Here is the input.
Amino acid sequence: MVMNSLGLIELTSIAAGMQAADIMLKTSQVELVLSRTICSGKYMVLIGGEVAEVQSAVDSAASQIDFAVIDTFVIPHVHPDVFPALSGHTLATELEALGIIESFSVASLIEGADAAVKAAKVQLIEIRLAMALGGKAFCTLTGEVAAVRSAVDAGAQIIADKGLLVNKVVIPQPRKELMSEMI
Here is the structure.
């Protein structure tokens, strides 16, 4: 299956989350990337596949379980660096500048991370989703200072437009000890 897009539904109910996953998988030819509880009693379902299939699956689940939906997205042509960053498998071994974007929601953070890595020549290090974070999410990225600033601003703007930005930071020449704290 070609995974050129991602779709996500974030819900207030665990039971509704499991129901949404089932609806999404029965509605369209999509692949389940992640389906789990997240902090503060929420549930998220992340799927991948062709853009039209992903859109259909997200729309179907959101319309049938609209009472529990916090946020949704479909990202067509998702940047390939998003997948390893979601799983915590990155090749970053050295930090030039460190960029951090923090959000109140999983959905907006993934959208912001995708926008960030598309905006400038940076490397996503990690996308951490709402586990032991009180329902928040954050991503880290590295590259040259100017590129990291540009990427962080682009990603943060997507999140801010939804009213969900917690913070954004760019740290030039971070101490090497920070790398061991990130992954």
Observations:
- DSSP finds six helices and eight strands in the chain.
- The chain has a mean pLDDT of 90.
